[in-house]
């Protein structure tokens, strides 16, 4: 259906910045443990880096479009870029104030002191100098710059010091790149129960004289800078045996992409800023004044100096009811479907599923699609063992998983070396589906077992991402999954399946059909509703479809963690739509679609968000929950999330991110209540 360009919409980039502000809210929340507040600052910073590398880069490419193209696009990229800069500068100020005036003081109250280079006493100074000379000095080679020389190409996201040496009226400039392979933090010797930490930045500042010892100077100044570059890859769209080489070369180009943001220490003197801008030939719109420390994403590894109470307690993963590690996983799945909700329940079920398939003499074949793999992947090790045990193993690795390309190239090479048949996706379409199919010979016939997930087959992210994984031997699902893997191995896109909803061909018509059914029910005067949970909602045609459903009287509840282009509560469009967003300890990653269906509810889980890229330009798999007990579990979890009045924010379209308040005075924090709910179900 064509989109009415006049429907209420929030620009997706602006909506994304509203989401990142919710991350900043967590860092500002005094009820969040202090070190986790530091980590939320790191997540905010990392998110913003990626935003500039990808989204701002794309907008910059569109900025010089003619008026006709802008009309087709529906917005003016230059205007949006200006809005982005305005919002980001405000967020950076909020970030800096939070870190410098609140977090630092609260760390000090806990006897944790982050020292600068000017705060070192003689003893600690000697310790730092010894560390610098033994670990750092040989890795630092400054690039000397005279007045006329240009600055060499800066690497994407690397942190540098821009240094000024002054001798009377003579000025020299230099550039020092921080080493990437050393820890960002150094814990100094404890004194009188006081803990001291210094950043790599200040270790270098403290030791500048050791670096520039051959020069005479009256004064020396060093200020940090960081350049963020365009990270989008220009690749040959044909998938061939040369694809890995092409991708590897593109990754090298990424490091030299077009500058998107120059972040500099706001305390840098104006003459140094002007000199820097001149030497880099930077544009004013790319300049963002920042704090003393860049690459704040490194604070995700801020050291805990033996104070566990300053971090969220880690729950012990729960067992899934009825699914035992002490018995054959496959035999149990033969009898019942099982749903595992990580990180509340153990990701080990997925590993055991693959390990058992790897050693079971009856198993003939394993087909799996993977998107992001862990650094030391147990999933890969299980697949390699299966190949060594004579199983046919077919692994579809999506090499274009953004910022995980190099890791996926490494694992795909390793898999091929060990005899696994590796497939590298489909031309023009990323394979984002998370699915595995095991075939086993039973009584002379092949039986099939499926593992389908909303999240990656990645044990590291499974400990912090909230997702659902279905284990099933239901023929309706396994028959469709056979077709999916058969088509993908032929380089074809699956379509026309009976149970699974697979992008890019079937997702849009399937979702439209489900929405149209609710509209039909509402127009008949019956109760019609849908509850949709996702990471992001940005497809404009789907937004228009939801507006149509709202106008027909369908009650719609949306739970959207990230960007949401739909504007709720607008008369004539979305009066029956409510939207909340939950940002908490775990990253809400599961996608769930619930439709009233006239009292016979339909429940789907999916790997896809309601974004154009997921619906039309990726291979995604949505799967129904047929088992009534498991269907109830999904509905109960969603109900708990809708009742959240602690970490849920109301999305109203204005970026206010107001916390949801309910008539119930008792606080409800969904992530805690989901854990307790699953724990209770298992007793």
TrEMBL record:
Residues 10-114 form the Polyphosphate kinase N-terminal domain. The active site is at 432 (phosphohistidine intermediate). An intermediate of this reaction is the autophosphorylated ppk in which a phosphate is covalently linked to a histidine residue through a N-P bond. Residues 126-302 form the Polyphosphate kinase middle domain. Residues 329-490, 500-671 form the Polyphosphate kinase C-terminal domain. Keywords: ATP-binding, Kinase, Magnesium, Metal-binding, Nucleotide-binding, Phosphoprotein, Transferase. It comes from Mucilaginibacter ginkgonis. This is Polyphosphate kinase.
């Amino acid at each position: 259906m064509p989109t009415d360009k006049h429907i209420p919409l929030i620009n997706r980039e602006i909506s994304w910045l509203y989401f990142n502000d919710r991350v900043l809210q967590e860092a500002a929340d005094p009820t969040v443990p202090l070190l986790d507040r530091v980590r939320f600052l790191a997540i905010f910073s990392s998110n913003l880096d990626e935003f500039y590398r990808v989204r701002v880069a794309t907008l910059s490419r569109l900025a010089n479009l003619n008026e006709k193209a802008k009309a087709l696009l529906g917005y003016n990229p230059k205007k949006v870029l200006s809005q982005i800069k305005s919002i980001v500068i405000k967020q950076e100020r909020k970030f800096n104030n939070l870190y410098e005036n609140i977090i630092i003081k609260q760390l000090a109250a806990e006897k944790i002191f982050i020292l600068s280079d000017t705060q070192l006493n003689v003893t600690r100074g000697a310790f730092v100098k010894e560390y610098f000379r033994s670990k750092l000095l040989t890795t630092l080679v400054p690039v000397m710059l005279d007045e006329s020389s240009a600055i060499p190409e800066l690497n994407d996201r690397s942190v540098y010091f821009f240094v000024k040496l002054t001798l009377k009226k003579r000025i020299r400039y230099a550039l020092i790149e921080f080493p990437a392979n050393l820890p960002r933090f150094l814990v100094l010797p404890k004194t009188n129960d006081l803990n001291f930490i210094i950043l790599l930045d200040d270790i270098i500042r403290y030791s500048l004289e050791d670096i520039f010892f051959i020069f005479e100077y009256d004064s020396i100044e060093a200020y940090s800078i960081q350049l963020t570059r365009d990270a989008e890859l220009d690749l040959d769209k044909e998938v061939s045996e040369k694809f890995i080489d092409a991708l590897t070369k593109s990754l090298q180009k990424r490091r030299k992409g077009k500058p998107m943001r120059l972040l500099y220490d706001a305390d840098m003197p104006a003459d140094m800023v002007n000199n820097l801008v001149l030497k880099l030939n930077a544009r004013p719109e790319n300049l963002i004044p920042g704090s003393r420390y860049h690459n704040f994403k490194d604070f995700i590894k801020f050291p805990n100096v033996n104070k566990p109470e300053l971090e969220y307690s880690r729950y012990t993963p729960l067992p899934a009811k009825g699914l035992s590690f002490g018995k054959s996983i496959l035999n149990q799945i033969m009898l019942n479907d099982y749903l595992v909700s990580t990180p509340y329940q153990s990701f080990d079920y997925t590993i055991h599923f693959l390990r058992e398939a790897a050693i079971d003499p009856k198993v003939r074949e394993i087909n799996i699609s993977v998107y992001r793999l862990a650094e030391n992947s147990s999933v890969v090790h299980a697949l390699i063992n299966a190949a060594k045990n004579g199983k046919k193993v077919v692994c579809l690795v999506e090499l274009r998983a953004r910022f995980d390309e190099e890791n996926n190239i490494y694992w795909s090479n390793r898999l091929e070396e060990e005899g696994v048949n590796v497939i590298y996706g489909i031309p023009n379409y990323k394979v984002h589906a998370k699915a595995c199919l095991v075939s086993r010979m039973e009584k002379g016939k092949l039986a099939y077992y499926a593992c389908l997930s909303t999240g990656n087959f990645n044990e590291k992210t499974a400990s912090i991402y909230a997702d659902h994984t279905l284990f099933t031997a239901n023929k309706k699902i396994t028959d469709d999954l056979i077709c999916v893997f058969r088509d993908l191995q032929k380089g074809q896109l699956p379509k026309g399946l009976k149970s699974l909803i697979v992008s890019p061909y079937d997702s849009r018509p399937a979702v439209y059909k489900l929405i149209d059914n609710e509209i039909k029910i509402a127009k008949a005067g019956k109760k019609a509703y849908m509850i949709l949970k996702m990471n992001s909602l940005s497809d404009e045609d789907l937004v228009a479809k939801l507006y149509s459903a709202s106008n027909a009287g369908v009650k719609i509840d949306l739970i959207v963690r990230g960007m949401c282009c739909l504007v709720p509560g607008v008369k004539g469009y979305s009066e029956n739509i409510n939207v909340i967003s939950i940002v908490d300890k775990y990253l809400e990653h599961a996608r769930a679609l619930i439709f009233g269906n006239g009292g016979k509810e339909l429940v789907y889980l999916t790997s896809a968000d309601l974004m154009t890229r997921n619906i039309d330009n990726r291979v995604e798999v949505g799967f129904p929950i047929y088992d009534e007990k498991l269907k109830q579990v999904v509905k109960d979890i969603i109900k708990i999330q809708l009742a959240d009045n602690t970490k849920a924010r109301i999305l109203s379209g204005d970026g206010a991110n107001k916390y949801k308040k309910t008539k119930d005075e008792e606080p409800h924090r969904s992530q805690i209540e989901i854990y307790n709910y699953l724990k209770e179900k298992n007793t």
